[in-house]
């Protein structure tokens, strides 16, 4: 039984749900990094499977950030106007992460069927940059917004989980 169904359907605080999403996204990126390392070590997935894994991760992260930008952040800004600068900084990070994901997708789209050491360095650098920005972004967001989200009561988010709180296809 998961946290959402325990204690007679007791609701999980929104900030806590955000933490769960961040953990899931970190795990997805770690899996992608492992797949990339395995590929370049000659024992991994073929390029098309790595591209599919990358697409899944990128789609999930984009859905999360689009949901924040379009739904969560405006609601937070309305209730906590003092956080508008924080929210603006987080949106800037979202744009940077989108750009990094685009770079990674291009590199993975061009992967040869057999691992190439020259390409390995470029791909690993790009995925490490994406990982570093995502880690610092999540830490900053969690520090600034978890307690705020835990204090908020947005009935429509509880009835229909918004995109920024979705973990996988089961939630859709």
Automatic annotation (TrEMBL):
Residue span, Hemerythrin-like domain: 18-147
Q: Gene3D superfamilies under this entry?
A: nmb1532 protein domain like
Database matches in CDD domains: Hr-like
Task: Tell me any Pfam family this protein matches.
Answer: Hemerythrin
Q: Which InterPro entries match?
A: Hemerythrin-like
Q: What is this protein called?
A: Hemerythrin-like domain-containing protein
